[in-house]
Amino acid sequence: MTMRHIMAKSLAPTDGVREYLAAQEKKSLLRFLTCGSVDDGKSTLIGRLLSDTKQIFEDQLAALERDSRKHGTTGDDIDFALLVDGLEAEREQGITIDVAYRFFATPKRKFIVADTPGHEQYTRNMATGASTADLAIVLIDARQGVLRQTRRHSIIASLLGIRHVVLAVNKIDLVNFDQTVFDRIVEDYGQFSRDLGFQTIVPIPMSARYGDNVSRRSESMEWYSGPTLIEHLETVSVDEAMVELPFRFPVQYVNRPNLDFRGFAGTVASGSVAPGDEVVVAKSGKSSRVKRIVSYGGDLAQAAAGQAVTLVLDDEVEISRGNMLVSPAARPQVADQFAANIVWFDEHALLPGRSYILRTETDQTSATVTDLKYRINVNDFAHEAAKSLEMNEVGICNISTRTPIAFDPFAENRTTGAFILIDRISNATVGAGMILHSLRRAENIHWQSLDVGKRVRADMKNQRPAVFWFTGLSGSGKSTIANLFEKKLFATGRHTYILDGDNVRHGLNRDLGFTDADRVENIRRVAEVARLMADAGLIVIVSFISPFSAERRMARELMADGEFVEVFVDTPFEECARRDPKGLYARALNGEIKNFTGVDSPYEAPETPEIHLQTLGKSAEEMVDALEHWLNERDIAEDQYDSGGGI
Amino acid sequence: MTTALTHLQRLEAESIHIFREVAAAFAKPVMLYSVGKDSSVLMHLAMKAFYPAKPPFPFLHVDTTWKFREMIAFRDQMAQKLGFDLLVHVNEDGVRDNINPFDHGSNTHTHVMKTVALRQALDKYGFDAAFGGARRDEEKSRAKERIFSFRNAQHVWDPKNQRPEMWKIFNTRIASGESIRVFPLSNWTELDIWQYILQESIPIVPLYFAKERPVVERDGMLILRDDERMKLRPGETVENRLVRFRTLGCYPLTGAIESDADTLEAIVGEMLTARTSERQGRLIDRDEAGSMEKKKREGYF
Predict the structure, then answer these.
(1) What is the biggest distance separating any 2 CA atoms in chain B, rounded to whole angstroms?
(2) Low-confidence ranges of chain B (pLDDT < 50)
(3) Domain B7-193+290-298, CATH homologous superfamily name and number
(4) DSSP label of B67
(5) Which residues on B lie below 8 Å from A102 (Cβ)?
(6) ipTM score of the complex?
(7) Does A362 reach chain B within 8 Å, measured CB to CB?
(8) Is B4–A97 a contact, with Cβ atoms under 8 angstroms apart?
(9) Minimum Cα–Cα distance from B159: chain A residue
(10) Which Gene3D superfamilies does the entry mention (chain B) (predicted)?
(11) What are the residue ranges spanned by the domains of chain B?
């Protein structure tokens, strides 16, 4: 083993270091990603960049040589890909799974590079790297030309707001440095990317493995007179001039250490602000003036895009996290319905009608896709009709949120126009969205405030509204129990209504089939109807298989607290199939009916229903008694609470 | 006309944004304070993020009982000076079993006294988010990690299935028992850290500066004999040499470098001509291939 604690030379005199640091301070930063198809040499290129800019230390080089012998794919040469493929699984499989961030600097600039995976299945990790980049290096294997993943990555980069592209035609050595190959690829890519809105596309022929035209001008390509990659990266201007845009300050955190101080902390998304400036609260329209810009080192005279500051206002206006302080002259849109581009990440497809959590930089609400307008074919940009968006697909959707959000179109502001979608149950980040524009109808429809309210309507009927949501397999006994339950309630003077799966499908939901997407929509419509009926003061009994917990949860969230009563009619599959009152199981098991719950479509049993009815060996009367008992207990509890609260 | 933000201003703003996001979105965050230079920067940024308030979370030091004495003294001094709430956790099971780096090797010692200790502390207090000072330029599995890095209820990191992380929109949602490790310094490099320490005059443990110290040469490393628990092997002698440390951890596992850099400027100057990475002085990363990823999956920071 060599001695590693070699005397490090502190040659640079103190003045020299100061000068050096002063120069560092003035450097700008460029964030870029490498993308493209598998085996186009992304990781190799980054290894080359790091090596050429002297970012690889001796101990790392020694480890790399060791690893290259063990896992390398480049014969006796150093396999630079192993420098960035940092996960065990990546080295074993010889592929890139997730994005790696690497750092290097030249005398002119500092760089953060995101090395992103080429496999289609890891597109979400490519999107992660692209979302914070200003420039994309799209790699192409000179032998392969423009591939499907080249197109997909270019489209995603474009959607995510990247305006500058380097078209790196790599492995040019393997086609004998042939200009005609290069020209043809440049032509192909130019054709394809015409409508992607890139401001610059700079094609460079290179060999990442041997370093041609990376930082060293190639001697084998006299015909190429453009810049080397490094020359271009050092000089390309990507400034978005966020500071020139109208002032936007998404409030992230309300800082209130004591009664005398109330500051709004956040990062200025665009524009700038100074003490004395008028600002408007986006969602309420209330205005105030900036009194102080507080920072640790003392108050500031100005805060501009990118700075994380704390604002103190002149007046006590109501502002919480998720709201936005904005310029009075140019306000953002505030709406609960808008159109957006969506990139879908999750293996469970996006379904219109299903409820997701929508998050902007600081705001959060629930959202549903009301209309999937079309899917974009990544090969030819064709707009294709679609009922769902599968993993790695891109589409245009109308979105409806439970509460309005403040935003700008993404094309105008990359910070205030973006959002992510989160699955309500797994909490996975399932999609990313770029807002196009608000929908007119959202601006025009305002909630009517009615004097005759829900409470008054229910009181007149001398009851409390409730939605009994029966869920269970076909043939589990839902309808039988529901009918008997309604009879008993009717007998005691209650006002009721039954929404039955089969009956509703004959009318309101006649246009829906049995795919997952249609099942979700089926439930959404019924839940909305049930809500209106509860609003009218009724006790509603919904009798639907409703196999997915996400939709039952959505239904629950539509209703007021305590009004939604999930009733799990729990009959084993074998018993349901034995009873088979409509002969459906026999046909489904024969393969005559597709997407039949319990046979070839899943049923997600409720984990914590309000009422769990295990039907085996019990009569319908016994179960209805249990339901009535539950209802009476609830009403008594609420009456007590009400009279207590009224004193 | 406003001038564009400098490189360090951009990094600082990003880190402050991350701190605030956690404070706003989590019920019980904590900052892991390891007393090193990155922790010093992290602490400084936390103070800035919430000024004029104090950071709304405690600082936790997982003490392996083998840290340099100067680190412990510095830790207590900073807690008093800045007035933050300092929690110290020691794995008492490990102390009882006398787990130490000499008899059990760096792997077992680190696992018991650091990784397991950290899990114990997180479970004990029920923290749902924990800040760490890791940087992506340190090591190649760290280069792959998200800024908001999800951990399941067993504190396990699943590197093959990380949540997408788009723009500055962080997914802060977790189920009960799960947690997020948060790395505000993800995009900082070692040079950025030193430059920032210099610019902001941030106090750091004196061990980073060159000084005559009693060291033993062992396994190709210079180990500072910080107390009597380190027994000399046959042939070993303690020599006073002019040394300093590029990183700090458990003293028996941290190699010193010979250096006369006794000012921040000299340290930066030295760094600019360095030919080895900073983690090279750490025994624990070299034990086996992919060892950092393995430790991280088990819950190490």
Answers:
(1) 69
(2) 1-2, 286-289
(3) HUPs (3.40.50.620)
(4) B
(5) 136-137, 143
(6) 0.90
(7) yes
(8) no
(9) A87
(10) HUPs
(11) 7-193+290-298, 205-286
